[in-house]
Design brief:
Blueprint (H helix, E strand, L loop, with lengths): L4 E12 L2 E7 L8 E6 L3 E6 L2 E7 L18 E6 L3 H4 L1 E7 L20 H4 L12 E10 L5 E12 L10 E3 L6 E5 L21 E5 L12 E2 L7 H4 L2 E6 L7 E6 L2 E8 L5 E7 L5 E2 H10 L9 E2 L5 E2 L2 E2 L1 E5 L5 E5 L2 H7 L8 E4 L13 E7 L10 E6 L13 E5 L11 E6 L8 E7 L6 E6 L10 E8 L1
Parallel strand pairs: 1-28, 9-13, 14-19
Antiparallel strand pairs: 1-31, 2-3, 3-4, 4-5, 6-7, 7-8, 8-9, 10-11, 11-12, 12-14, 14-18, 15-16, 16-17, 17-24, 20-21, 22-23, 25-26, 26-27, 27-28, 29-30, 30-31
Length: about 475
């Protein structure tokens, strides 16, 4: 019987800046894996033989973080090593460019009003001037003398708002060998321009990049739409999924001779969601642009749609308004879109809610990691999907604490329950926000990134742990 688990944490390193990516790779000339940690401010560390060293420091390349109170969702968000890194030295970064800030796509906040059609049909105009920042995806190479250098730029993406840029946003697909970029809807809240459901928009998508095409484009343009890219670049891109709000990466699990893909969608007001799928039909970016130019619909049979902005997990996207009592009124924000998308979306594998009356559950805040586990060291988790929340939404726990839980893939494609993982570790009086979840190459170990503050500007308060059996 599946049940609540108790696990421990084995400290690996303390006093880091906020960790965003944890994974392992095998360096050229090595036989064993090295643990790699990326921080939001732009550092990448390696840990070998219980010592820590700096692999790369691009803090000067990252825009100034935390200028609006300390909290920020920009920075160094993605790190992936080529499957042949030990032979070719290639690795990939996704980060927010220094000196790229602008005032944003909307002058103030946004909330849809179901009674005001104008709020339901906003368009992102004057994109070259009205945006928040630029994200870049780059290929780097570790030279023979051990010094990394930038090799080329793969994409430059103009982002409308500061948030929803994803985290752990670069991973390689073991199915296709391609680099996978998971990127959020552009931010603010409620996806005001409906970018996640608009095929030609890069925002709110899961994209595969064929890095083996080895394209070198001088002065790579800064874009927001696929149609703004050259044919050469388009031919290197396919789109796996749309309907993404914000996403903590993708995890692959090899089971019964096929790969299960796990992705999470961070919620708006009600629910956090984990999706799982096996079969899919990626859409070539060239087909998306062709359909856009001809004002027609591309063939999307087998194309994955997570449902946002019409659906927030298993619920129609809703506004929350306080009642006279202690209850809240939930109002469907985008009724027509919820109906239109209802038969096109896939259903979540698992959901956990911001308010949940059930015993042995927790009040969620924000999904920060989704990771398949295939190890024997924690037998009860073998074959499961583990996920983590930034910090439970409750007033009874002070200081704040993140949450770990797990669920299982269901061959019947039905929603499944989740189960809590109690952490037997004393964080003392320090806050413990769970910022990311990682694994080694064959998914037999789990790593947890923890930060002592919600603000990236509170420096050197990060730790990385291995999750272990008690």
């Amino acid at each position: 019987m599946l049940d609540r688990l108790s696990l421990g944490l084995q400290p690996i390193v303390h006093n880091l800046n906020l960790p965003t990516v944890i994974k392992t790779t095998i360096f050229p000339g090595d036989q064993e894996e090295t643990l790699m940690i990326a921080t939001q401010v732009g550092e990448i560390f390696y840990i070998r033989n219980n010592t820590i060293g700096t692999f790369l420091d691009i803090r000067q390349n990252i825009l100034q973080l935390g200028t609006n109170g300390g909290y920020d969702e920009r920075g160094l968000l993605g790190l992936a090593f080529h499957p042949n890194f030990r032979y070719n030295g290639l690795f990939y970064l996704h980060y927010s460019l220094a000196d790229s800030e602008e005032p944003g796509a909307l002058p103030g906040g946004f909330s849809p009003n179901p009674c005001d059609e104008n709020t339901l049909n906003l368009r992102w105009t004057d994109r070259e001037n009205r945006y928040d920042h630029i994200d870049t995806v780059e290929e780097w190479m570790l030279q023979n003398e051990g010094q990394p250098i930038k090799r080329r730029t793969l994409l430059n993406i103009r982002r409308p708002f500061a948030n929803h840029n994803g985290v752990n946003s670069l991973n390689f697909s073991p199915e296709t060998g391609r680099l996978v970029l998971t990127i959020g809807d552009g931010g603010l809240g409620y996806d005001p321009f409906n970018l996640a459901q608009t095929d030609n928009e890069i925002a709110g998508k899961i994209i595969e990049i064929d890095v083996d095409m080895d394209l070198f484009i001088d002065n790579m343009p800064v874009v927001t739409r696929f149609s703004e890219l050259s044919l050469q670049v388009l031919e290197s891109l396919t789109v796996i999924a749309k309907g993404v709000r914000n996403i903590p990466g993708i995890s692959y699990q090899f089971f019964n001779d096929r790969y299960i893909k796990y992705v999470g969608n961070v919620g708006q007001d009600l629910v956090e969601s984990i999706f799982a799928f096996i079969y899919y039909r990626p859409v070539p970016a060239t087909d998306i642009v062709k359909s856009y130019i001809m004002n027609s619909s591309s063939n999307q049979e087998g194309f994955i749609n997570l449902g946002w902005r019409g659906w927030e997990g298993d619920l129609p996207t809703s506004l929350i308004r306080p009642c006279d009592s202690n209850l809240n009124q939930k109002i469907i924000a985008y009724y027509n879109e919820a109906i239109t998308i209802s038969t096109k979306r896939i259903y979540p594998l698992c959901c956990y809610y911001h308010q949940d009356p059930r015993v042995d559950k927790f009040q969620g805040r924000a999904l920060t990691g989704v990771q398949a586990y295939m190890g024997n060291e924690i037998p009860s988790l073998m074959g499961s999907c583990v996920f983590t929340d930034f910090a439970r939404r409750t007033n009874t726990v002070s200081p704040p604490r993140g949450v770990l839980a797990y669920t299982w893939f269901t061959p019947e494609c039905q929603m499944n329950e989740y189960y809590m993982i109690d952490i037997d570790y004393d964080f003392g009086n320090e806050a413990a926000f769970f910022t990311c979840l990682g694994s080694n190459i064959n998914q037999t170990k789990l790593y947890l990134g923890v930060y002592g503050s919600a603000n990236v500007t509170d420096l050197n308060r990060g730790s990385v742990y291995e999750i272990v059996k008690l």
